[in-house]
Amino acid sequence: MNTYSYEKNQEQFMRALKVIPTGIYGHLGPVEGCFIPTSAYPFFSQRANGAYFWDVDGNRFIDYMCAYGPNILGYNDEDVDAAAAEQAKAGNCTTAPSSIVIDLAELMVDTVAMADWTFFAKNGGDVTSFALMVAKAATGRKKTILVKGNYHGVAPWTQKLGYPGIAAEDVSNNFYVDWNNYDQVENIVKEHPGEIACFMSTPYYHPVFADNELPAPGYWQKIRKLCTDNGIVLAIDDVRCGFRLDMAGSDHYFGFKADLMCFCKAIANGWNVSALCGTDALRDAVSSIMYTGSYWLSAVPFAAGIACIKKLKELNAPQMLIKNGRKLTEGLVDTAKNHGYKLTVTGVPSMWYMRLTEDDSLMLHQEWVAECVKRGAFFTNHHNLFMCCAITDEDISHTLDIADEAFKVLRKRPPTTINSVI
Amino acid sequence: MNTYSYEKNQEQFMRALKVIPTGIYGHLGPVEGCFIPTSAYPFFSQRANGAYFWDVDGNRFIDYMCAYGPNILGYNDEDVDAAAAEQAKAGNCTTAPSSIVIDLAELMVDTVAMADWTFFAKNGGDVTSFALMVAKAATGRKKTILVKGNYHGVAPWTQKLGYPGIAAEDVSNNFYVDWNNYDQVENIVKEHPGEIACFMSTPYYHPVFADNELPAPGYWQKIRKLCTDNGIVLAIDDVRCGFRLDMAGSDHYFGFKADLMCFCKAIANGWNVSALCGTDALRDAVSSIMYTGSYWLSAVPFAAGIACIKKLKELNAPQMLIKNGRKLTEGLVDTAKNHGYKLTVTGVPSMWYMRLTEDDSLMLHQEWVAECVKRGAFFTNHHNLFMCCAITDEDISHTLDIADEAFKVLRKRPPTTINSVI
User: Fold this and answer.
1) Which of A16, A108, A307, B29 could form a disulfide with A80 if both were Cys (CB 3.0 to 4.6 A apart)?
2) Residue A253 and residue A285 in one domain
3) pLDDT of residue B205
């Protein structure tokens, strides 16, 4: 099995560095994207289709990052893209919005169990930030309880004091608790009566650099009751999990009902839209807030979203993704075992997290992943991975062959130091 | 000249109200969109082309709002949309971004005089918020000076204390000055030595509900010197003006050089992208900040942006828009005069502001605008209007006929009360 080389990727990256700070920024870039060692990774794609993307050197990858989530049906899904193309001919970003926005809002309300209404924006962060504003408007309070390690976007309130560009005031209304620790939440609520506007969390714990954790039995039901009893808005950030656990919403999957649900990645298979869904009790609060953006009512992503959600429902996508994720991860665990390694897999299998255990330096895991990437199975380190509906049994089988080969390489040599183009 | 009726618009709006708070939210909606009286306005479009959109009742409008700015070449521009469609076939939102992001970054750096680098996001508000974070990271300070009445998006720091969902901490690092008042800026800088990270403003004053105002002679040059002398980052919000005044940037148009420039609306003719441009001195600060979003490196809007900017340069779009805007507004002023009214026009003609004077209640202006809209010339009230390159002399002539007819109606009747579907 030949390993890939990345000459054109490196050339393009050097070109990018001149006009783009860090070359590629954010979660798609080598710095924040957990592309370690960077020498093992492609930086720029040329094209994509189904479960694959091809980089600028022509290397093909089975893509288990799915653009960090948006690719749920498979790249360039023909039904979604045909709907987008058809809408583009009629109109996209227009002074009076297309009535297709109503069609998608009705479909969201019909699909998401807790939703009485939907509000569309562009980024996950648009709707997590808006959820806090809605909670503040509805309650007249300003404090929020967040779970340490959860990611809710990049707005200053989501970041940490001491991070570049963040002022103390940006995070001064946040309380932080540990995941699955109900008592901490309850104590904060007791110690600050009438002050907590919102409890916001992902439906389960999927941070970076840590095993993912499902909610403990009864956790969400107790949180729900605590919020209801104390007039606190319960907001779920379903940006990453949304439609990968349950088409009716991840609160539904875990047996409770949120007041607000934030969706983004899987709505429109990569076409640019996010959504806040909510209950009737919060309709007036939403309506009271000035919140908008230049492209927020553009019609093309709405057309794509309608086609995507309908297809996800037809396929029963969450079940398919969980089943195939389980097949893949069980195979990876077995493959590791055959070579004397232990691979720990956590989270829901449609968006699992994995790490080689007995590897405190993390370098063994990183080297194994690097050997997989260089052979065409695209994983990143220390971040959950994603399944899409286009991944076939053959792709899974090929991935297991790659994993096997990568373990062989690992056994043949001692760990090396991290190399990097940065 | 028949007036339009809006039965299907009203029906769709009633349908929307069930699943979308306020039916249509934000600046495209009847509540915040200055669609007064709402009975005169269409709510939903069916299709758009060139300078026109058609509503769900089939009424055609010459569109002088241009989707609040993004429509600069004309709706569904064939060059832009062909580039977008071609890129969509290759790939859009992928795990490794397309190298087309570099092409657009190079084009931005080549086009915008002050730009050494470009950072892309999705909303204008993404890049105005990021500009503040960059300024804070670069200076280690946290205070910002803003101009009262300027619009920089919807993030909490852009809003006012007392608005729903806004906490005191959200705006506690803001100082506010009057437009064109250099002394106020200087005083704040003197009173808070070493505390001001950023002065942010639009390049000229284009608030709602007020005549627009150009910078006084020497204003920007004095502000530039004050910022340089005191280590303050000068950030220009060119979201609305960008590429409607000068392809090299609105700071260039007014003869100064900003440190950061925020672009959005006119970059890609409605395809979803925004950009922060900056100087080399701020490259490290940008690189230090975690700032990203799910779709920020999607390729389709980049392809559209390249096609759009190239075409804008070929057309010398800002000059064309200013010339045609002048032709239209001079015609409107004359038409008003013929009927004994005075129409005051302010701002740069490519995005002018207008109001009927001697009308303290604003209702005369609103009634005249309503009569124009009902005959197919789409204006809004109390907000600047926009020219696009697809507007022809014939469109302008037809608009003047509509304006004339609307003034005739105004003269025949006393002002009525505002009616509304809300």
Assistant:
1) A307
2) yes
3) 98
Listed as ranges, residues in chain A with pLDDT below 50 are 417-422
The verdict on A230 and A264 lying in the same domain is yes
Q: How far is CA B351 from CA A64, A365, B243, B324, B369, in A?
A: 46, 56, 11, 11, 17
Interface contact flag, A287 B22, Cβ < 8 Å: yes
* CB-defined contacts A:B, below 8 A: 352
Of B41, B96, B137, nearest to A55 by CB-CB distance is B96
CA distance readout (Å), A421 to A31, A35, A40, A182: 10, 11, 10, 44
Burial letters for A286-314: b for 16+ Cβ neighbours within 10 Å, e otherwise? Answer: bbbbbbbbbbbbbbbbbbbbbbbbebbee
Question: Residues with Cβ < 8 Å from A397, sequence gap 6 or more?
Answer: none
Of chain A, the end-to-end C-alpha distance in Å amounts to 28
Residue type at position A36: I
Q: Looking at the structure, do residues B98 and B215 belong to the same domain, yes or no? A: yes
Among A50, A118, A63, A51, residue whose Cα is nearest residue A279: A118
Do B133 and A164 make contact, defined as CB atoms within 8 angstroms?
yes
Range of the domain at B236: 78-315
Give helix A363-373 / helix A393-412 axis angle, nearest 10°.
Answer: 130
Domain at A177, CATH number: 3.40.640.10
Given the structure tokens 């609105």, which residue do they identify?
A: B250
pLDDT computed for residue A30 by the predictor? 77
The CA-to-CA distance between both ends of chain B, in Å, stands at 28
What per-residue confidence (pLDDT) applies to B415?
Answer: 53
Residues from chain B that touch A90, judged by Cβ atoms under 8 A, are 46-48
* Domain end residue (candidates: B315, B337, B354): B315
Query: Is A389 an interface residue toward B (CB < 8 Å)?
Result: no
> Do A305 and A231 meet the contact criterion of CB atoms below 8 Å apart?
no
| B155·A155 Cβ contact <8 A | yes
Q: Are strands A143-147 and A174-177 parallel, antiparallel or unpaired?
A: parallel
- A234 to chain B, any CB pair closer than 8 A? The answer is no
Contacts of A98 in chain B (CB under 8 A): 44-46
Domain boundary among B315, B344, B377: B315
Residues B306 and B343 in one domain: no
- Residue B293, amino acid: G
What's the burial of B96, exposed, middle or buried (CB within 10 Å: 0-12/13-18/19+)? buried
Domain membership of residue B1 (yes or no) is no
Q: Taking CA atoms, what residue in B is nearest to A90?
A: B47
In whole angstroms, what is the distance from residue B266 CA to residue B391 CA? 16
Strands B117-121 vs B343-346: parallel, antiparallel or unpaired = unpaired
Same domain, B157 and B234: yes
Count Cα atoms within 13 angstroms, Cβ side, for B311: 23
**Nearest CB neighbour to A94, from listed B41, B75, B274:** B75
Q: What angle, 0 to 180 degrees and rounded to 10, lies between the N-to-C axes of helices B299-315 and B100-111?
A: 30
- C-beta atoms surrounding A421 within 10 Å: 17
User: CA-to-CA distance for A171 and A369, rounded, in angstroms?
Assistant: 35
Bridge partners of B98, per DSSP, are: A45
Q: What residues in A contact B27, CB-CB < 8 Å? A: 292
Complex confidence, ipTM: 0.96
Q: What is the number of structural domains in chain B?
A: 2
Cα–Cα distances in Å, from A342 out to A353, A356, A358?
Answer: 14, 6, 8
Q: What is the mean pLDDT of each run of 10 residues along chain B (422 residues)?
A: 94 97 86 81 97 98 97 98 98 97 98 98 97 98 98 96 95 98 98 98 96 98 98 98 98 98 97 98 96 95 98 98 98 97 97 89 89 97 96 98 96 57 33
For chain B, say whether A17 makes contact (Cβ under 8 Å).
Answer: no
A419 within some domain: no
